[in-house]
Amino acid sequence: MDYKNYINKTYEPFTIEVEKGRLRFFAQAIGEQNPIYQEESTAQEAGYESIPAPLTFPFSITMDAGQSFNVLEDMGIPKTKAVHGEQGFIYHKPICADDVVTGQQKIVDIYEKKGGALLFIVTEISLSNQRNEPVCDLQSTIVVRNG
Amino acid sequence: MKPPTFDSLSVGDEIPSLKTPAVSRHTLALYCGASGDHNPIHVDLDFAKSSGLDDVIAHGMLSTGYLGRMLTNWVPQSAIKSWKNRFSAMTQIGDSVTCSGKIIEKFEDGGEKFIRLELQTNTECVQTIIAEAVVVLE
Fold first, then answer.
1. What ipTM was assigned to the predicted interfaces of this complex?
2. Which of A77, A128, A136, B138 could disulfide-link to A58, CB 3.0 to 4.6 Å?
């Protein structure tokens, strides 16, 4: 099947509220022990408006928005054939507790390797905060085994 | 703790590594809830077996989270400008994850000083992530 017509497809914009308790839980789940990720006062002393989101939390924002791997369902590809191949982040400003983050997913590239045995789907999401400031850009590559 | 300065670092220098305790089912259950990644392949043994695996597998992004911890143990989070991870193998239950990194380039751009790091995560038997990050330093 030719998937190329999915290139440049954009998905519905989304908005996610970043909750303090969730950030604490996330930090605990990755074993992060720096108190700036638990205590608002310590975070503020370090120059953050509130508890900062750890480096990989932006990916969870996109998961919460249902905008990660949803392209597979859209393209009719079983999830069990796909793996997360690459994940990139570009950071512009910290995301902190109580931020309201918006974003929109776009498929930026689709290509094959190994004579069509592997299909690569590259998506991008740019996240902004409630002040319309860019906070983080994510680029994900999903690898699908064909056949 | 004071962050390292640009001038104090050289290409080839290694940054302080990080080794996690063995990944358990409990680790994955907590990360499932906290991360919002509810894919059953990571927490439901019956599902994992029906998908042809012997056991559940760890979330790739959990190891990325550990790698991020290594970075923010070393420099303030705001110093990290970009970061790209390539997942190369699965992490299994009982694996301990070792994160490491070394400086591969120093450069200046627009009056700011940057270093480029090559990072990786390894279990006892396999490399699971290879990554590159760019960090701005004074």
1. 0.96
2. A136
Task: Decide if domain B18-23+60-137 falls under CATH 1.20.910.10.
Answer: no
Q: Does the beta-carbon distance from A28 to B77 stay under 8 Å?
A: no
- The shortest CB-CB distance from A30 to any of B33, B66, B78 is to B66
C-beta atoms of B77 and A89 within 8 A: no
- Spell out a b/e string for A32-65, using b for 16 or more CB atoms within 10 Å of the CB, else e: bebebbbebeebeeeebebbbbbbbbbbbbbbbb
Q: Which of B20, B34, B72 comes nearest A26 by C-beta?
A: B34
Number of domains in chain A: 1
Domain borders along chain B are 18-23+60-137
Q: Per residue of chain A (147 residues), what is the pLDDT tens digit?
A: 678 899 999 999 999 999 999 999 999 999 999 999 999 999 999 999 999 999 999 999 999 999 989 999 999 999 889 999 999 999 999 999 999 999 999 999 999 999 989 999 999 999 999 999 999 999 999 999 986
